Automatic annotation (TrEMBL):
Gene3D superfamilies: 3.30.1330.30. SUPFAM superfamilies: L30e-like. It comes from Paenibacillus anaericanus. Keywords: Ribonucleoprotein, Ribosomal protein. The keyword Ribonucleoprotein applies. Residues 4-84 form the Ribosomal protein eL8/eL30/eS12/Gadd45 domain. InterPro entries: Ribosomal_eL30-like_sf, Ribosomal_eL8/eL30/eS12/Gad45. This is 50S ribosomal protein L7ae. One of its GO terms (cellular component) is ribosome. It comes from the Bacteria.
Length: 107
């Protein structure tokens, strides 16, 4: 498993992750989300929704990996969207993600 996905698992165990469409949107709107990750195999509509919201609220967005791997990294079934609530974890993942070829979009 990549270092990014391992970092997500660590953040989940620390209680610094929210998953699910509405929960992540709420965290973005309230400025609690420090980084949002959307599965690369999510629908185009989902990609657009999170690009727009994250752009409006100035939250960094990463589109990559697939829903099975994102879910497995946080110990849940398939996950399409994950929000990180801690700046330290977000910074660690953003530094690591630059070296990963599994990501199609970083903002």
């Amino acid at each position: 498993m990549s270092k990014v996905l391992s970092g997500l698992g660590l953040a989940m165990r620390a209680g610094k992750v929210v998953t699910g469409d509405e929960s992540v949107l709420k965290a973005v709107r309230s400025a609690e989300a420090k980084l949002v990750i959307v599965a690369g195999d999510a629908s185009a509509n989902t990609h657009k929704k999170f690009r727009d919201k994250c752009g409006t609220y100035k939250v960094p967005l990463i589109i990559g990996f697939d829903r099975e791997r994102l879910g497995a990294s946080v110990g849940k079934p398939e996950r399409i969207v994950i929000g990180l609530m801690d700046q330290g974890f977000a910074d660690m993942i953003r530094r690591t993600i630059v070296k990963t070829s599994e990501v199609e979009y970083i903002e």
